[in-house]
Amino acid sequence: MKAIVLLSEGRHPVSRRAMLPAVEARALRLAEAAIASVPGAVIEGLHAGPSAEVVGDAFGHGLSRLVHLVLPEGDDPVPALVAALGADVPDLIVAGEISRGGEETGMVPHLLAAALDRPIVGPAIAVRPGDRAGTWVVDEALPRGARRRVTVAGPVVVTVAETAPVARPFAHGRRAAGRIETRPAAVLVPT
Q: I need a labelling partner for 5 at 20 to 30 A (CA). Which of 66, 73, 129, 179 fits?
């Protein structure tokens, strides 16, 4: 089983400094919890953009592997993400609902799900494997504190609510030990 956490470069709301969005650190925590009971399951980070320096902070929150798809500044990341995930779609793709502070629209997970022809659910506060093979049980956060539990057949894209459990504490030692695999971004050309 494989889970992918989509990572992006956000901006601090006051200083405007580049940072890993808090909701994406929460996405990492949610993905870890989702596959914790599955022997041999792995989690990878995936980032498409000009630099992976800031998203490398995800290592400090427990990520062990990050793939960086190099894109020029301002390019749309969706085609590169689709090309990277299209051949080998993971069982679970987790993304922040919206990263906050950058130039995000919140549409990347939705466009990715549509391009990969996968269901999308969220905003989630918890995910776990379902009782039937290939299914996921997702607890969604609704307005005014309401919750809804849905079961969906995977592979699936899950957006993470800002109210999901907080990220693991940041550890500089884990951050320093993390390694980023850099690849040129391949983009699918429509036929």
A: 73
Whole-model pTM?
Answer: 0.90
Q: Closest Cα partner for 68 from 120, 9, 123? A: 9
Over residues 87-110, mean pLDDT:
78
Q: Name the 3-class secondary structure at 167.
A: coil
Residue 189 gets the label, from left (phi > 0), alpha (psi -120 to 50) or beta, of beta
Confidence of residue 129 (pLDDT cuts 50, 70, 90): very high
CA–CA gap between residue 144 and residue 162 (Å, rounded)? 14
Rounded Cα distance between 100 and 27, Å, is 14
DSSP 80-100: HHHHHHHSS--SEEEEES--S
* 15 to 10, 11, 19, 156: CA distances (angstroms): 12, 8, 10, 35
What are the strands of the beta sheet with 2-6, ordered from one edge? 147-153, 135-141, 120-129, 156-160, 92-96, 2-6, 42-49, 65-70, 179-184
Side-chain-side CA neighbours of residue 39 (13 Å): 0
State how far the Cα of 43 lies from the Cα of 31, in Å rounded to an integer: 7
pLDDT attached to residue 120: 96
pLDDT for the residue numbered 187:
64
